[in-house]
Design brief:
149 residues, mainly beta, four-stranded antiparallel β-sheet, globular
Length: 149
């Protein structure tokens, strides 16, 4: 039922499947939306040059994960199977999986700069701007929680 629509400098939220919409204020100092997602707990996630932000109250208060070593967010996708927000950056080969409930994160090194990533049948599938599609090898586990790559 929760749907987001955005342009670079604005964000709209519908909590009734798109029948009604309301604008959400952006975090202070946030310049442009590059990616967005809605997590299973209905938290709104946005990413851009300044990093990753999320709101659990429909844009009333924005939080960031300051210790996440990633900026220039290019892709966000909520993975219901992993219960994580998958985060990519156009300037990094690392994919982060942030637990939407407690904001703990794990990471995978794709070996390529991945623009966006999704999970399919328990494996990560990413699209890069120049190298095509990257698929996680079967059985690969992410690094431990909160460890910097």
């Amino acid at each position: 039922e929760t749907v987001l629509a955005a342009r670079r400098d604005g964000l709209m939220l519908s909590e009734d499947g798109g029948n009604g919409w309301r604008p959400l204020p952006l975090p202070q100092g946030f310049s442009a939306i590059q990616a967005m997602a809605v997590a299973g707990n209905h938290a709104v996630w946005i990413g851009g040059r300044e990093g990753l932000f999320y709101s659990e109250d429909g844009g009333g208060q924005w939080k960031t994960i300051a210790r996440l070593p990633l900026g220039e967010i290019s892709g966000l996708n909520y993975d219901g199977e992993l219960h994580r927000v998958l985060v990519t950056s156009r300037s990094s080969t690392v994919i982060f999986g942030v637990d939407s409930a407690d904001t703990q994160w794990k990471w995978w090194d794709a070996g390529w700069k991945v623009h966006e990533v999704h999970s399919r049948n328990g494996r990560l599938v990413g699209a890069s701007l120049f190298d095509g599609v990257v698929v996680e090898p079967a059985g690969q586990e992410p690094a431990g929680p909160g460890q910097a790559p």
